[in-house]
Amino acid sequence: MAKFELKMPKLGESIIEATITRWQKKEGDTVKEDDSIVEIATDKVDSEIPSPIAGTIISVLFNEGDIVPVGTVIAIIAPEGETIESIAPEKEVKEVAPEPTKNIVPEKPISETAPIVEDLNNIAANKRFLSPLVKSIVKKENISEAELNNITGSGLDNRITKDDVLAYIQGAKQKTTNEIQAPKLEVNLANGDQIVVMDRMRKLIADHMVLSVKTSPHVSSFIEVDVTNLVKWREKNKDIVLKRENEKLTFTHIFIHALAQALKDFPSVNTSVDGNNIIFRKRINIGMATALPSGNLIVPVIKDADKKSLLGIISTTNDLANKARNNKLQPDDIQGGTFTLTNLGSFGSLTGTPIINQPQSAILAVGVIKKRPVVLETPEGDVIGIRQIMIASLSYDHRIVDGAMGGLFLKRFAELLEGFDINQAI
Questions:
Q1: pTM greater than 0.85
Q2: Is 402 a catalytic residue?
């Protein structure tokens, strides 16, 4: 009789596996279409797998904590109306289900990699999982088992991620080679202090930020922007957009739209560094730093932002923000960014100096919009007027973006906002 095989979905071009973190349904449970069945995690993002059909779960093929390749059957569902007895028994199903990913080592490794292969075998015996990408980096950099054992994994169950290995290569490996022991910072606890272990996402954020500071020499430039016309335009149009499009219109949407144009005008800022090479990105994919209810941060990406109208930006941005708040983002939603925007003004901050989201070369922060008295030049002379002012800051990688380029880019962004046509239609 009919049965439905629930498979580990394709989570992105570079994602080949995911970890099952929690089963929300168990064998024998009935599910409706789109009910969440299982929570999964990758090195990039946590997500949920919904049921494509209504029915009854008759077999769960993997345990929580198992690492499962993309495309592997993870559960069997009897469609609504089918009797469970008419479906193949669980044991028979499990016999054809692929095994979870293991540290597979070639039977006849070449001599140059023999020490590393032996190390990987030892690590497998210790149940430390290394993804194929991490293993390839380990082999390429000739990292030994002893060195790997000194790397603290930031992934689920202390799993070593790509960022962990790259951070080690940048710092820890060199320190081990030179036998330099940095002094350990002691934190004295006082009565009543509380110790809270970082969750998985906070560890990833921390490692990524440390790696960015070690990688790029950060420089920041600032500019004041008169957004009076922009504020008036949004006030006039926000109710129209909500009624006509059922979408909220925020300042962030307008900033992203202007930012896409500025990046098109200054392609040298839409770049990455690869050794001694500069990569000029063809696509303009703007990451939008988004605060989560948990207090953590994630950066969904608006792909090809320069090719979207303002309404397109509004729709895409709101969809990604809602998915982020509801833990529905897929790995593809946070990959491929070439530049990042963070709106510090949402929390009342005047400005800030954000850390670059590697491997990008720059990140823009916008502060809170405040009314201020400003000297205005008129044909009759200087006057003082009340204007809506915002401070924007650009942090950039000084290896490839110098002060002149950073300043010109920031000036162009300001010009696009200050020249906003209050009468333009949407």
A1: no
A2: yes
